Amino acid sequence: MGQSESIRSTVRNLITTLGSDASLYSYSSATKTHNEEGDVTVSSWGSATSIKVISSNHYSLRRLIQNQGEENNKGERVILVRDDVTIAHRDKLTIGTESYLVHEIKRIDPIENTNIAFRCVLVKDENY
Question: C-alpha distances in angstroms, 99 versus 91, 107, 117, 128?
């Protein structure tokens, strides 16, 4: 696991050093109400966890991840977060003044079964 741990350490350092501050709110901990049609409204997100995020288009990180077979989808807001962050589908992520819904999460673990980082696709949601 030496090589994968070295890559993971480099990715963690890049995200921590070059990443933007973001606030992560857990959907599972949020106070939710359901209407008759099955729509969900979140009335309270509770407290946030501060994390660092970096765009998947960042040059230094893209060069490193590209070598691991990770492709970039330029049509969506895609970020990378450290492998030790707990993030889930439908969580709320606030970057600056913009809020997003975590729509898709993919583990980047191309070698030695070691998770290098999480690739998250974010979407705007009017309810968030």
Answer: 10, 22, 21, 6
